[in-house]
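Problem 3 from the worked examples.
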Amino acid sequence: MDSRANILQAIAKNQPPATPLPDISDIAVVDYQVVEKFKTTLEAIGGQSIEIQTLEEVVSYVKTYFNEGQRVISTIPELAPVAETDWQTQDPHTLENVEFNILEAKMGVAENAALWLTEAQLGQRVAPFITQNLAVVLDPKTIVATMHHAYDRIANADYGFGLFLAGPSKTADIEQSLVLGAHGSRSMTVFLLTSFSG
């Protein structure tokens, strides 16, 4: 047996006994309206929220703010009139010129405006990071108060890859000056679809 195997075997033999997780229900209590808190937090971290009734409003948004030559992609079939929807199996390098990417999130978190996306919503793992501008369609009824509530919801879910994504890319490392779009999308828009049926 090599030294690595010896070390791993020694660690396995010296595991402490399992203990139950602490009850955190007391600290997960909130006294705010989750949708309003989500919107306020999103704005504070550099994003914007837009309330919509139908996905047709997203189509109109794309037509208003993006030129015909700019590349727009989405994982939402209803947005095919203004976005490519068949790009998920392409070489990820071909996404380098994406101007606007529109995804669907399964959950939002009010305390930090994070959005939960799995590989099924991402299309490709690189997609939300390589685009110049990112938008996410979210059912406001899926917004939870805190990350504690979010982890409770996904604890037993079956997914191969998932991530929490909050706001546009940003850094304040240089002279403590906030720069948006430092190493990812320059903007983040969340479409709150109030008539969501999916």
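Problem 4, a separate protein:
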Amino acid sequence: MRKLIEDAIRQIDDMRALDGICGKAAGLVNRATQPELIKNTLSGTWLGHALHPVLTDLPIGAFVMASALDATAGRAGATAARRLIGLGVLTTVPTALSGACDWSDTYGPTQRVGFVHGAGNAAATMLQAASWLARKRGRHGTGVALSTVSLGLTVCTAYLGGHLSYVRGIGVNHTAFQEPVTDWTDVASLSELSEGSLHRVTAGGVPVVLAVKDAKVYALSATCTHEGGPLDEGKIVDGDCIQCPWHGSVFRLEDGAVERGPASVEEPSWEVKVDSGRVFIRSATAS
């Protein structure tokens, strides 16, 4: 079974015919979510981690409970089951929007798998909506059949969603396994740094970006928490922030807090001291 699943995902990975529609759809989503408020809301920047996994529990839970009522209560639970399906269909809207926002920043095989994941969920939702209509018109058996087929499809798309998160690392904090550096580490000469510039160094095996703003040196981990982009190749924006060159996430130099998504997790910050013209850093968590 595992081999069959892996082969199926591999086939989706290789479906280059999807690239055209994926590129157009991702472009539309990126333009629609360009405003900071929309991007931060859908990305989960305000929440502290990705919003989409939280919302998926709502429609999936509603659809599963509706099918449970179908199986255990029959027509006695028909009204409650129909209400649960209606609730599930409604909650797929914010769930799909947040998922599309995350998906639009992916590329290549991962984007193809994400597209199939989203298309499958859309089909499953349409089946549930048809089930709700059938039940409302008194066609209980048809409604149950449609919900059952939809739930089976949802299981398949949920597997793809798990694959994207736990195998491909979408929505995962890319600095989660960086070990804190507790000792002051000499990383650069102050003369190497210039105002408004970004400079990549390494401390304890961890890449760090140094930035000079108003003659003060700041340090953040150089790996973007969102998708691992190199912050040292980004730029200083808004006076006191750094922007990732890959997807535009913006972090405060002072403490790594997220000012703009798609990142939802703050960037690890580092303490800085200058001694005898040398720059020393250590993890902010070390103090």
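Solution to problem 4. The chain has a mean pLDDT of 96. The two ends are 50 Å apart (CA to CA).
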